[in-house]
Amino acid sequence: MKKSARRKARPAGSDTYWVLREDQLDVLTSPVRSDIIDHLVGQGPMSIKQLAASLGRQPSSIYYHIELLHKVGLIVEAGTQVSNRRTEVLYQTSAPRMRLMRAISNPKNHAVVAKMVSVLGRQAHRDFEQGLSHPAAESEGPQRNLGFFRLINRPGPDSLAEINRHLDRIAEILWEERDMSQPLVALSWTLTPLGERDDSE
């Protein structure tokens, strides 16, 4: 199969796209559409056929989702490629880094963000189940790519700032690194203050 690609260069300074619009946030409450964004961020421009293969789906099952993501501006056309004498449109995310964190600061977004975190939880469960039987799974050592963690504690302001610096750095590493010889990995996390029972009642 011969492939040739013609890709559009991203505009300068378009490293990060902050997803803040209500219609965009609402579109991302779908696990399939969230997966599409994640795979395009992780692997770069792909055709619908390539994207469907990466997701383990039939191309016909993602056309609708691609149209919605394109309509709200979360993905854009990135040129074309020729495969088996057919021209295929390539899609990419609106920027290499698709960020959602700022959406939390607007109380009007809390309900839709909570739905997105619910989706994230289901995806994390699905990803972990698949990872348990993945032939490249490593659960120990410096190349570990399979694990889980939850801890509740009371970090002080300096410790919380350090935790957030580490989380930001982890995100940077995952955005910067793309070694196509390695298996895809998924990392999901939540950080939240917890309500506490009043023992005096």
Major sheet: arrangement of strands = 1-4-5-3
CATH domain topology of the largest domain? Arc Repressor Mutant, subunit A
CATH architecture classification name of the largest domain = Orthogonal Bundle
Q: Could you name the CATH class of the largest domain?
A: Mainly Alpha
Low-confidence stretches: 1-12
Description:
This protein is α+β, with helices and mostly antiparallel strands. The chain has helices at residues 22-27, 31-43, 48-55, 63-71, 110-132, 157-176, and strands spanning 3-7, 16-18, 46-47, 75-83, 86-93, 97-99. A four-stranded antiparallel beta sheet has the order 1-4-5-3. The longest helix is centred in the middle third of the chain and has 23 residues, at 110-132. It is globular.
Task: Chart the SSEs and their pairings.
Layout: E1 3-7, E2 16-18, H1 22-27, H2 31-43, E3 46-47, H3 48-55, H4 63-71, E4 75-83, E5 86-93, E6 97-99, H5 110-132, H6 157-176
Notable traits:
6 strands, 4-stranded antiparallel β-sheet, Arc Repressor Mutant, subunit A, 15% strand, two-stranded parallel ribbon, alpha+beta, 201 residues, 2 domains
